[in-house]
Amino acid sequence: MTSYTLRSANPAKTRCDAVVVGVVQGAKGPELADGGAEVAEAFGRKLRPLLSGLGVTGKSGEVVKIPTAGAIASPLLVLTGLGKRQDATAVRRAAGVAARAVTNVASVAVALPAGTPELVRAATEGWELGGYTFTTYKKEQAKDAPADVVVLSPVARKKDAVAAFEESRVVARAVAGTRDWVNTPPGDLTPPAFADAVVAATKEVTQGRGAPKIGVRVLDEKELAALGCGGILGVGMGSAAPPRLVELTYAPKGAERHLALVGKGITFDSGGLTIKPATSMHEMKSDMAGAAAIVQATYAIARLGLPIKVSAFAPMAENMVSGSSVRPGDVLTMYGGTTVEVLNTDAEGRLILADALVRATEQQPDVILDVATLTGHMVVALGDRVSGVMGSENVVADVLAAAQTAGEEMWPMPIPEAMSERVHSSKIADLAQHDWIRWGGGLFAAAFLREFTAGRPWAHLDIAGPSFNSGGAWGHQTPGGTGVAVATLVDFARALAGR
Predict the structure, then answer these.
(1) Please, what is the Cα angle at 60 between 55 and 66, to 5 degrees?
(2) Do 435 and 343 meet the contact criterion of CB atoms below 8 Å apart?
(3) 497 CB contacts (<8 Å, ≥6 apart)?
(4) What is the H or E stretch that residue 390 is in?
(5) Could you tell me how many helices (H) and strands (E) the chain has, helices first?
(6) pLDDT digits (tens, 9 = 90+) for 172-226
C-alpha cells in the first residue's frame, strides 16, 4: 500500500530515492518546469549541457533518468516531459508517465508544477492512475510501486490545496475500481457476479465509523419480469447468466439537489443474433464500463460527503447467442409500457438503458445523466479518446464544464429532429430500436434514449471510444479499462451541490 503525503519542501533537499521534475519545451530549448527551480539552481551551469547531452527535449511522454552524483539530496532525478504547457492536463499526463518509469524504489518526491489546488489534484491523480496495474491473473506481479510518494507544492499548507489533494485520492480510487471491473474477464463478471461485486463494494464503502450510508437493491430476473422490464430481460434471455438491475441510493441529510445516474452494464456483447465479427469481440468485456463508472462515481460522491442525493441505476445483462436470444423483428415492452421493435440485436445497450431511465424518472431527480459504451458511430466521429455528450442544452454545457475540470475530453453532439422521426419509424411498435441507415447512428441512439427521460433535464455520455485503451499506455492512461467519466460525474455532482 502506497502512502501519499502533500508537503511544502525544497525538492533539491528532499531525501527520497528519486525526485521527479517536469521539463517544458522552452523557446531556447528544454528547461525545468515550475516546481524544479531549486533543482535547476543546484545543478547550475551544468544543467543545460547535461540536458542537451542526454537528448532531453521536454516533449510530452518523454522520461529521462539521471543519477545526481550528490548534486541534490535524492540519488536519482527523473525528468518527465510536459510539452509546451504547464497546465493541469500536461501535469496529469506527465505524472502518469513518470509513475510507470519509477519502480523498485522506496520513496519518491513529485516536484511537478503544483502551485494551485487544480495542479495539486492533477499531479496526484496523474501519478496514482499512471501507476495503476491489473495483475490479478498474472503469475508474475508488477514491479513494486514506491511505498511513499510525496507531492511537493508551494501551497501545501493551504486548506484548498489540502482538500484538492485528499479529494483527488478519493476520485483516483474510484477510477481504479472502475478499471478493475472493466478489466475482469467476462466469464468471471457475469451479470449476477457483477451485481454481487457491487453489493460487496457497497458494504466496504459503508463500513466503519463515519462511513457514508448507501442503500443497495438488486433486482433479479423474476423481479424484473414482475416489473415489466422488457429491455433488460429481452437482451439477457439469450444467456445462461440471467440479468440484473442494481439500484443504489445515497441520500445525505441536508441534500437539496437530486442527481440520477444510469450506466450500461453489458458484461459481454457478442452482438446476439446480429453477431459481431470475431475481430470486434475480444474487447467486449468492456461493454459494462458505463455501469462501473456510475457505481464508482456514487461511491466517490458519498466518500467526499457531497450534500447531494444520488440515485444510481445499473442494468446488467449478457448479450449472447442461443435458441432463446431476442430476434430481429421481435417487439419488447419496456418498463412503463412503451413498445420497441428490435431490428439489430447488436444495438442492445439502449434497450437495457431504457428500462433503467424510466426507473430513474420515477425518482423525480433534478438531472439525469446516463453513461454508456453505446455506439461505434461515436468512435468514428470523435476517435478513441473523446466522449460524445448529447441531451438538454444546459445539462450538456454543465457536463462539458465538469469534464474540463476533471481533465477528460468530451465534445457536444446534436440530436437533430430528423433522428426523432427515424426513432418513430416502426410500423408495428411505438419506437424503432435501430435502423440500418449508415449515417448518424450515435445521434439516433441518443434520440431513442431521450424517449425514456420523461422530458427531464438529461444528458447522455457516449464513452464507446475512451472507455477501453486497446493500445499502449499514454499519459495517465494504462492499457485496458480507463475509468473514463468517473471524475466528470464527481465534478458534475460537486457543481450541482454548489461546491
Answers:
(1) 40
(2) yes
(3) 255, 256, 257, 306, 307, 308
(4) strand 387-391
(5) 15, 21
(6) 999 999 999 999 999 999 999 999 999 999 999 999 999 999 999 999 999 999 9
C-alpha cell at 404: 474540463
The CA-based dihedral angle spanning residues 393, 298, 498, 158, taken in that order and rounded to the nearest 10 degrees: -130
The conformation of residue 477, written as its DSSP 8-state character, comes to: B
Q: Tell me how many degrees the CA angle 345-349-397 measures, rounded to the nearest 5.
A: 140
What span, in angstroms and rounded, lies between the C-alpha atoms of 293 and 485?
Answer: 6
- List of E strands, 72-210: 76-83, 107-111, 148-152
Q: What whole-number distance in Å separates Cα of residue 80 and Cα of residue 20?
A: 7
- Look at the block and give the residue holding cell 470486434: 280
Residues contacting 256, CB < 8 A, separation 6+: 307, 308, 497
> Which residues face 244 on adjacent strands?
316
What residues are annotated to the active site?
276, 350
CA distances to 39, 121, 145, 160, 430 from 127, rounded to whole Å, are 20, 10, 11, 20, 50
User: For 92-117, what is each residue's pLDDT tens digit?
Assistant: 999 999 999 998 899 999 999 999 99
Question: pTM higher than 0.90 for the full model?
Answer: yes
Could you give phi then psi for residue 214, rounded to 5 degrees? -130, 120
Read off the pLDDT of residues 5-56 as tens digits, 9 standing for 90 and up: 999 999 999 999 999 999 999 888 999 999 999 999 999 999 989 999 999 9
